[in-house]
Records
---
Amino acid sequence: MYRQRIRQQILYGQFREYTEVAEKLVALRQKLGLAPATLWAPTVGVANEVVWEIDYPDLATFERDNESFYSNAEAMEQWRLLWQLVVQGSTQDELLQKAPLIA
């Protein structure tokens, strides 16, 4: 299993606007049949931060979903709106894998 985690700090005063656009993207991912995204906000830590988490069963699904998402005009329109509400340079994107059991 793989988990993509995207952290973004939101411009002050724009959190509600960000979540409105983000909700549209989450719904669009569902409509496109992509892995569901969950949005989190730290209880303590960086102020005005949102963390996207998306779980994938394997790398092939991660690649297929990303290709579908980034080639969809409606998704890209919403994605660009979202990025206008993000502090430039604050985004961190990571891909985690389930910790292996080693001998």
---
Amino acid sequence: MKVVWDLRQATVREVYEKLRERRPIAYTTVMTMMNILEQKAYLKRRPAEGRAYVYQSARPKAQIIRAMVQEFVNRVFNGSAEPLMVQLVKDRHLSRAEVEKIARAIEEGK
């Protein structure tokens, strides 16, 4: 998703080439992942020249991130965000200022 967001729209080949700049990855892995993201309605595609498709974000970035986080929390933590937050605080060694910022966001969300 990050590559598609950066490029605004991209073919599987373009995403593959961008990802290969950072690490080895198979073209078929990128194609499979993009198909899954399309099935989950995070990406939408339209035909391009030849056999390729051009993909772009199906919804605004913030909506997709929210949906992905919720999907993760549901799948891994049975819908409860508390164990995720506790784990993040423990593992990331958040500063007092960061914890206070999170606390303010929680209060604003109530």
---
Amino acid sequence: MNWKKLYDKTQNNPKDVRFSDFLRLIEFFGFTLDRQSGSHRIYKNPHVHRLLNIQPRKDGKAKPAQVREFLEMVNRHGLYPEDEQ
């Protein structure tokens, strides 16, 4: 699945995003894993001064609040996928 389809799907339904897809989407937008402690993964982006802290739900999906936080960062900072800049 390309980043555009994945991004649209995530925007349309942030409550039903597989964690593995969420990780791919985060990395498409230039976030890199800074560190991990247990299930908590901390991502950073050179264009965003805030860290993104994520962890999967027990069912393997991404937490909707964390998906919305990511989408807000993308919109607020005008981020684009790495290959689109």
